[in-house]
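> call design_seq(struct)
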């Protein structure tokens, strides 16, 4: 079963920072997951929330700042004093860390609140620049974004994110179309997921930080997990 470091190794490093991704780049895992928003001057930055309030010493919406303005804030000390001075990374800077590794990169387009006009083209350009077309997965809760990606680059793997259970995942995702289904941990044990797996769908589950659940999902035939603590999950799975 493949493991993806969720927002980097976010159990031990400030999420979505170069420190968290650098740590992940050294691990024998399948890949990483990150989130992208667009700045006021059209730059792609890696951060989960629409605002910088939770993960920096600043306040306000990402979309209202230029990259230079966002760089004025500290994105590490909220997590621990040793990470003071961590900067908000651009998508390009994170991809740079993985150019020479084997890891896959799951890029989540955070277009479910603000549409960020043109984000899909910007992301595809960055992927092409770093020659990572074969290694990326683009996911989103906004399935219109996935349709846009498919229209522009049908060769890129896409994954539809779901917080709730659908009665029929595979028929729905075929209409987007999307190559994979990313579902939340509680819903992964429900019958529609088993049906999707029977139909040979690719199913990945977020966010799994308990070894017990990881083992159960592995037994179900789930192909991959997103976890904040990939080393702990890896150790737990390999113990038996």
């Amino acid at each position: 079963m493949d493991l993806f470091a969720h927002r980097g190794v976010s159990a031990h490093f400030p999420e979505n920072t170069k420190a968290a991704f650098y740590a992940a780049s050294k691990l024998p895992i399948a890949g990483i997951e990150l989130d992208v928003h667009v700045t006021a001057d059209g730059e792609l930055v890696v951060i989960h929330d629409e605002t910088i309030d939770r993960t920096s010493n600043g306040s306000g919406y990402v979309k209202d700042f230029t990259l230079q303005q966002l760089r004025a804030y500290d994105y590490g000390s909220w997590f621990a004093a040793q990470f003071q001075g961590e900067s908000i990374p651009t998508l390009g800077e994170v991809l740079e860390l993985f150019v020479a590794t084997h890891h896959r990169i799951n890029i989540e387009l955070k277009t479910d609140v603000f549409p960020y006009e043109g984000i899909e083209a910007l992301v595809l350009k960055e992927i092409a620049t770093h020659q990572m077309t074969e290694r990326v997965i683009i996911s989103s809760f906004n399935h219109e974004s996935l349709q846009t990606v498919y229209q522009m680059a049908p060769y890129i793997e896409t994954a539809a994110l779901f917080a709730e259970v659908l009665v029929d995942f595979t028929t729905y995702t075929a209409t987007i179309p999307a190559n994979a289904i990313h579902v939340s941990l509680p819903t992964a044990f429900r019958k529609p997921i088993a049906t999707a797996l029977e139909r040979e769908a690719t199913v990945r589950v977020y966010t799994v930080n308990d070894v017990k659940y990881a083992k159960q999902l592995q037994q179900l035939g789930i192909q991959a997990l997103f976890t904040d603590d990939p080393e702990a999950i890896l150790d737990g799975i390999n113990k038996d």
